[in-house]
Design brief:
Blueprint lengths: L1 H15 L5 H4 L15 H4 L7 E2 L2 E2 L5 H16 L1 H24 L9 H6 L19 H6 L14 H19 L2 H10 L1 H11 L11 H18 L19 E8 L3 E2 H7 L4 H7 L7 E2 L2 E8 L6 H15 L3 E4 L6 H7 L4 H8 L12 E4 L1
Antiparallel strand pairs: 1-2, 3-6, 4-5, 7-8
Helix pairs in contact: 4-11, 5-8, 8-9, 9-10, 9-11, 12-14, 15-16
Amino acid sequence: MRYFSAVCLIWVFLGTGIVIPESFSREAPGMDIDMEPVPSLIQSIRFPDPLAFCGIPVPLEDPMVKAAMEKEMLLILWNRPQVILWMKRAARLFPPIQKILAEEQMPDDLKYVPVIESALRPHARSFAHAVGYWQFLKSTGLKYGLQIDNQMDERRNIWKSTRAACLYLKKLTAEFGSIFLALAAYNMGEHGLAVEIDAQQTHNYFDLYLPLETQQYLFKIIAAKLILEHPEKYGFHLNPEDRYPQLNLAALDLTLETQVPVLIIARAADISFKTFKELNPDIRGYYLSPGPIRIQVPADSEAGFHARFSRLYADWQKTSPVRIHVVKPGESLTGIARSYRMTLAELLRLNKISYKKVIHPGDRLKVR
């Protein structure tokens, strides 16, 4: 217990800048402590001058702006394990995000937005039911071209969700005239921001009195930028091998004639079902419906994929004549039967249902 107390005291002293006597900081017997040099918290909130985000100066000469910036920096640095996870994930996910930002002619600094939105996690979900890397609500995701249904949730696709975020932020920037206000609208909603701008008669982000979460939002993003750009300055010393390696993936386009189990596609890629789902977090469930789809597979499994898939699919058809169809919005029993080249009577008989049966999205029907 005394060793635990000693470590806690060391942590407090490091944060305050108090010098620890050499005899006190020696490793306690039986303990393996790998201490890294950590700057004092006071040093951590001495910001560079000038400080800018997306090329726009942050007015630290305003005491209230500086206080807000210091608060978010200190709170983030308190959660050091989270920052380490940011760094490890960023090594894998920043390259595709930066590529798309460059293609869309958007500021590179926007790559820090999904760090704060989701901690770069595809399955992140908010209390408001925003999902994915960029935390799109379903209505907004659909508006900007993302497929969100029982089979697919492209809010979890790093490429497609980043492209959609660029389109949305471009629209918000054009509407409000500032990337800072665009980010505020991204956080609180464009209608809510427009109401506050009209009520307060100012277009300066730093002069607007907004919901507390939105007031803190930009400062959190800037703090993430400062830390991830220069992690050693804040006591994070990761070696290249400590970071998650970039994924060497190949994008393959498939056109499925009938419903196909995800397991068949995973096996054609020479990977497990779990690995396939982790590489394609936007794909939901265990079956893919007929139609075109793009999947991500390891680059070294691209060669021969289509031949393996054809063989596995043929074998599956012979051994598993009965398949499962997940009903999508707008579908009817007649349409589903037609898509599988079945008669309506065959579909009804196979599922032991009447033609009067009302089907709903998400219902599962047996098909051949």
